[in-house]
Specification:
718 residues, Immunoglobulin-like, globular
């Protein structure tokens, strides 16, 4: 039976029809123009009529390889310091254009939009993605390894203006060359691709590489941008000072605060940036979403601080699901924020080498001594789409030091069986810890390694791998959810499409998804997660549904506290669960995501429900609400956990927006409210006004703390 299944999979791999992914022209020639361009979206300057343009867009969805139903035209002009994109999105039904958002860094997956992917290194790997919609909203992303690294929190200096009329919607976009990193060559050749989405039709158009096997980020399948000669990056030094003032109001106390600090950025080369930071502050960052942990392992919280998000991809390396560098270890302690005195970063690309170097010094606070955090990460491009890298991290204080050394290799190709994607590789890391004045040996069984194989394609997806994390592996600047294990994982999923099937875009079947853990020291079975999906689908109208059956095994070797006063005893537990997940298309005025999971839970039973709702009242106002509930029945008695969250976003225009976020859960019994105004007075400069409030809800609602803060960051380009 196993041989028959493998033979069937191989036949599918070999027989799945693909076709040419390029149409002519596949090169866009930019035109030099020194005259003024008024950024208003009207495209009425003479240069737009004289510039070369491309119009050969092809459907990726819903009819792969089919002609576009609406015309799209794009042209490029430039001067010595800036590049301009002229974009014509014609629409035969302009009153049906869908554009719900206007805020900076909007979620463009639900709106009509145009996306540009530019690889200034022309390396088939890395680049910049810029997106806008018919409201002129702006979003940008740094993309690494053709989408395997995705940093949506990168913010470039650029601008866009949009005009709408009876013919459709039209955009003018300007990007200073100082925003982009590129070589010093007098004649530039860049990788480039474009994507347009027409939401009411669920139509997705790409200029090149329109196969469902690829996304826009697969820049190796894109076209080329030429004709750019003798340009200059302009800015070599950026100064970004900030000034902050605020007040904290407690029940019987008032505390005033004031701070100044900032950053200095030097362009060492056109592709390499040196950054200095002094008295770094993150007061404008939105609060973490608190989570109730109903497991015996650590929870992962995403980084939100812009300083660490910029250039994040240059410092990342993982061994399996374990991060060797996790920036939240810097400046955040168990009892809150730890001040950052200052630091230095160097990141960018030299020829085919990606470089990320960082050293940060934190101040002494309470019992935590002043500490230095340093990381060096070097990644080398090899072959057409592959890479090899090394990393070293060090946490050093007067009490101890911790070091981690690691290396990784990934082979990637988009040419398997013609045009299929395949990745395989591995990584390995070792930790070293020393307590000053101590005699304990902390450096035995201190290894972690992973090997993997991935076949991520449209109709068939397959992943397999093996990870080991030994008991003594201790990445103090990283994140490991659990330790002392060996884990074998594999997943196989089929996403068939049928041309004449009504309603369904594609079906989803997953016969196997397994994570099998054993204790690395004793080699005894520790836990199993096994899921199979008998049925799922994505509809032609954008709805999603899946039914999952899960079988779980866990064997904690000691009692652990599940929630205050409730303990799970050591033992062996087999649980069976059924799960349903569904979501509606987010491009509508109202949308929702729901999930429900019911089944065994250690010594009892668990019902888990989640609801996320989205209300898009207009392009200015968007509201969201979410609720997660767990109803758990154990021998000690039943209990319920509730987590509530809601946010209101109002954008006056793409450069001025306000938001309010509130959260509550019945374990902490407090309400956290975050109100923020974000104004961009000029591109690259920011003003924040923030109010944070904390209410206790034990018995009655009582205001315990209010913090009010204003912060201005101003960019000077020298």
């Amino acid at each position: 039976m196993m041989r028959q299944n493998l033979f069937f999979i191989l036949i599918l791999l070999l027989s799945y029809n693909t076709f040419g992914q390029h149409s002519m022209p596949d090169t866009l020639v930019a035109t030099y123009y020194e005259g003024p361009i008024k950024l208003n979206g009207k495209l009425d300057e003479a240069c737009w009529n004289e510039a070369s343009a491309i119009e050969n867009f092809t459907q990726r969805e819903q009819n792969e390889g089919g002609p576009a139903t609406e015309k799209t035209r794009i042209a490029v002009v430039y001067n010595t310091h800036e590049i301009y994109f002229g974009i014509w999105c014609f629409d035969s039904e302009p009153d049906k254009i869908s554009a719900q958002q206007m805020a900076r860094d909007f979620s463009w997956s639900s709106d009509d939009n145009i996306e540009l992917m530019i690889s200034t290194f022309n390396d088939n790997r890395n680049g910049y993605l810029f997106a806008t919609n018919p409201n002129g909203a702006m979003a940008d992303v740094w993309v690494g390894d053709e989408g395997h690294n995705w940093n949506k929190d990168w913010n470039g200096v650029w601008d866009v203006a949009v005009d709408r009329n009876e013919l459709g919607w039209f955009a003018e976009m300007v990007i200073p060359f100082s925003t982009l990193k590129f070589t010093k060559d007098s004649a530039q050749t860049w990788g480039i691709n474009f994507e347009r989405n027409i939401r009411r039709k669920k139509e997705q158009l790409l200029w090149q590489g329109w196969s469902r096997l690829y996304e826009l980020e697969k820049i190796s399948q894109g076209g080329k941008l030429t004709g750019i000669n003798n340009i200059k990056q302009g800015t070599k030094i950026e100064l970004e000072p900030y000034v902050l003032g605020g007040v904290e109001l407690l029940e019987n106390e008032t505390n005033n605060t004031g701070k100044i600090g900032g950053e200095i950025n030097f362009d060492i080369t056109p592709t390499l940036k040196l950054n200095f930071t002094v008295n770094t502050d993150f007061a404008q960052v939105e609060s973490d979403r608190k989570q109730i942990n109903l497991s015996r392992f650590s929870l992962y919280y995403p980084e939100k601080r812009q300083f660490f998000l910029e250039g994040r991809n240059y410092y990342d390396m993982k061994v399996g699901s374990n991060y060797l560098f996790y920036s939240r270890r810097i400046g955040i302690g168990p009892n809150g924020e730890i001040p950052i005195i200052g630091g230095v970063r160097l990141f960018g690309k030299l020829n085919k080498t990606n470089v990320g170097i960082m050293s940060i010094q934190t101040a002494e606070k309470d019992s935590v001594p002043t500490t230095n955090y340093s990381v060096v990460n070097i990644k080398q491009d090899i072959f057409k789409q592959s890479n090899i890298g090394v990393i070293a991290t060090q946490k050093y204080s007067e009490k101890h030091y911790n070091r981690v050394f690691g290396t990784e290799f990934t082979y990637s190709t988009s040419e398997l069986f013609g045009e299929k994607n395949l990745l395989f590789g591995g990584s390995i890391a070792v930790s070293e810890t020393k307590m000053f004045g101590g005699t304990d040996n902390l450096n035995s069984d201190n290894l972690s390694y992973n090997v993997f194989l991935s076949y991520p394609n449209d109709v068939i997806e397959f992943d397999a791998g093996f990870t080991t994390v030994q008991q003594g592996f201790n990445p103090e600047m990283g994140f490991a959810r659990r330790k002392n294990y060996q884990m074998l994982y594999t997943e196989l999923q089929f996403n068939p499409r049928f041309k004449n099937m009504p309603f369904f875009r594609n079906l989803i079947f997953k016969p196997i998804d397994v994570n099998y853990y054993i204790n690395d020291e004793t080699k005894k079975l520790e836990s199993i997660f096994y899921e199979w999906r008998p049925f799922g689908f994505v509809s032609k109208s954008g709805e999603f549904f899946e039914l999952n059956i899960q079988h779980l095994f866990d064997e904690p070797t000691e009692d652990f506290e599940l929630i205050d006063g409730v303990y799970i005893p050591a033992g062996s537990y087999w649980d069976n669960r059924a799960e349903i997940q569904a979501s509606s298309f987010k491009g509508r005025k109202m949308a929702a995501e729901v999930s429900a999971s019911i089944g065994g839970f250690y010594t009892g039973h668990r019902q888990e429900y989640e609801l996320y709702t989205y209300f898009n009242f207009c392009r200015h106002l968007n509201i969201g609400f979410d609720w997660q509930r767990n109803y758990i029945q154990l021998p000690q008695g039943p209990f319920t956990t509730d987590e509530l969250g809601g946010r209101i976003d109002y954008a006056f225009n793409p450069k001025l927006q306000t938001s309010m976020f509130a959260q509550w859960n019945n374990e902490d019994e407090n309400i956290l409210v975050n109100y923020r105004i974000n104004w961009i007075p000029k591109i690259g400069s920011y003003f924040y006004f923030v109010i944070n409030q904390e209410f206790s809800t034990g018995g009655s609602i009582k205001l315990e703390r209010t913090t009010i803060m204003g912060k201005l960051i101003w960019r000077f380009a020298l």
